[in-house]
Write a structure and sequence with these properties.
The protein is about 70% helix and about 0% strand. The chain has six helices and no strands. The radius of gyration is 20 Å and the shape is elongated. Helix 2 packs antiparallel against helix 5. By secondary structure, the protein is mostly helical.
Amino acid sequence: MTPGARAAEGKPVGSVHGASVGLHAADTANAWRGIAAAIGETLRDRDQKTSCALAERHGEFGRDPDALIAVLIKPAITHDGALHHEKYFHTATQGFARSRPGWRWDHLVALTRVMASGYGFADEDLAAARIALAV
């Protein structure tokens, strides 16, 4: 019998059709790859509660923090003209790197909330810099 395969009603033993362990594992891995992208959508909606819940679950399941950080860096450098996002991004990612494992994800969850709260507020200095640099 193939590892992970089980006999299902109407299916031969070893069949990979239907509800095999491998099928569910692949679906789960694909879903977790999409969680960071889903956080990007909730950030754009300025939905702090859902954004934080997704970030927290991402950490609870031991997912890659770099995937979340990659989603959070863009709003950190393109929104909130007072530079608060950029400064807090640095503070939170440094806190994540230096904290004990039990506290690390609190920094990224808090960062997610800040990015959602300020999403969409134009950074006038960034716009001026782009004009000056013709980019």
